[in-house]
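Feature request, filed as a ticket because there's no other form

It would be nice if the structure record came with a short human-readable summary line next to the tokens. Right now we just get the raw output. Example of a typical job, pasted below so the devs can see what we mean:
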Amino acid sequence: MVNAIVLMNVEPKMINEVAQKLVDIDGVSEVYSVGGRFDLVAMVRVPDNEALARVVTEHFLQVDGIKASETLIAYRSVSKFDMERLFSVGA
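Raw output as currently delivered:
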């Protein structure tokens, strides 16, 4: 499984519309509207790097309103949720 975080600058009047279009793309698990330097953050979870390339370089490019993006590929995931689940089974 490949996880990536895509940070985006979006046309201000199109933030909600872009977010909805992104979350409808296979492989996009969540989209957050955020404050700060970026407008939207998309969490992408796909089986491999080829699938990630398709999502980011094909599907995202078809969404009008995205002005710029930066993709961060996750090497490892550490989550409080995962740790709680691990300890709850006695590991």
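Something like this underneath would help us a lot:
The helical segments are 15-23, 49-59, 80-88.
The mean pLDDT is 91.
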